[in-house]
Write a structure and sequence with these properties.
This is Orotidine 5'-phosphate decarboxylase. 45% of the residues lie in helices and 14% in strands. The protein is globular and about 50 Å long. The protein starts with 7 loop residues before the first helix and ends with a helix. It has 12 helices and 8 strands.
Length: 279
């Protein structure tokens, strides 16, 4: 198990207490590489990703690389992602790898080994997963996370408009998204201070859409920053579980690069806004 046998929920709570709740994304989007005056190739990817990581990781509790933007460059891109994970850990940040994997049986087990298995070069402190082959199909990821002290964030109600129809569909006992939250709540029962199973809930959804009380796990909240949600939007949406929320910002921070000083200023300003609302 990682970090001397301490579960992910406890490590996350400690990191947030020390550094605040901001989750900084590292998304090497081609448009951002261009804005940083870098070529859209493996060399530009490496310069962008390592500059962002080495500047941001020492100031935030959680760093979230978006795997797809690395995978787009093949083996060279994946090698850069491995370096990002190592650099972020060396700087004291927890790494939440945004991979959104979801499959069944041995295939899901292989994904779990790749991203949650001890000794894997791609193993992060936590990963995002998709439950839309059934929440139970994620069992290999839950088992691997529990065995190694890592975490899993399950997509529940995402910030993209296309997700609303499926995730908001009725099940007879609520919505699809609510069923995912309820299943995560069951997985986290009895854990202290937080369970290892988080959910992804967009910061742009309608307040009151989900019942999150008693989740006893972390909530990754994309949509904060460049996608339109502000710090003041978080309290009406998350209410009593606000302390468990990780507001995620990528472009809202990265647009201030490539100057490291400007990136650090953007992080401090964002953290101050969140501290005012969350504490």
């Amino acid at each position: 198990m990682t970090a001397g046998g301490v579960p992910f929920g406890a490590r996350l709570a400690e990191a947030v207490a020390a550094r605040g709740p901001l989750c900084a994304g590292v998304d090497p989007h081609p448009g951002l590489l261009e804005a940083w005056d870098l070529p859209a190739d493996a060399g530009g990817l490496e310069k962008f990703a390592l500059t962002a990581t080495d500047t941001l990781a020492e100031h935030v509790a959680v760093l979230k690389p978006q795997s797809a933007f690395f995978e787009a460059y093949g083996a060279a891109g994946v090698a850069v992602l491995e370096r990002v994970i190592r650099h972020a850990r060396d700087a004291g940040a927890l790494v939440l790898l945004d991979v959104k994997r979801g499959d069944i049986g041995s295939t899901m087990a292989a994904y779990a080994a790749a991203y949650l298995g001890e000794g894997s070069p791609l193993a992060a402190d936590a990963v995002t997963v998709s439950p839309y082959l059934g929440f139970g199909s994620l069992e290999p990821a839950f088992a691997a996370a529990e065995a190694t002290g890592r975490g899993v964030f399950v997509l529940a109600r995402t910030s993209n408009p296309e997700g609303a129809a499926l995730q908001g569909a009725g099940t007879g006992a609520g919505t699809v998204a609510q069923s995912i939250v309820d299943a995560a709540r069951e997985r986290n029962a009895g854990a202290r201070p937080l369970g290892n199973v988080g959910v992804v809930v967009g910061a742009t959804i309608t307040p009151g859409e989900l019942r999150l009380a008693g989740l006893n796990g972390p909530i990754l909240a994309p949509g904060f920053g460049e996608q339109g949600a502000t710090a003041d939007d978080l309290k009406p949406l998350f209410g009593d579980v606000l302390a468990a929320v990780l507001p995620a910002s990528a472009r809202g921070l990265l647009k201030h690069g490539p100057d490291p000083a400007a990136l650090r200023t953007a992080v401090r300003r964002t953290q101050d806004e969140l501290r005012r609302v969350i504490g």
